[in-house]
Amino acid sequence: MNHHDTGRPPCAGAPAKASSQVLTSENHMLIMRRAARALAFAITALALAGLACDGGREGDRCVPDLSHNDCNDGLTCVTPSTCVENYCCPTPASASNNPYCNGAACPMVSEPDAGGD
Prior knowledge:
Strand order of the largest sheet: 1-2
Distance between the termini: 108 Å
Mean pLDDT: 74
């Protein structure tokens, strides 16, 4: 007899062996993990793409020589009178509360050395 040492024939409606259920469960978990990773990747990529397209906020550095405005609506890329760098500021920049726009926090323009070294 070839009936797995029990001497009985296998039952026609018997549940699957535990090992095949474990494999099915493991495959399901693997698929779920891969789907979760793909979803996390897609969300991260979309978030980064959204950040990359975001214009400069008030006080953010900008490049005035670009063919487009580097700053958000209502802001312009300007060089405050006491600064050596450019910032996204409202007009006039001196009326802004942002320390980069009103000149309080930006790097100052260095004056020429009077020593003539």
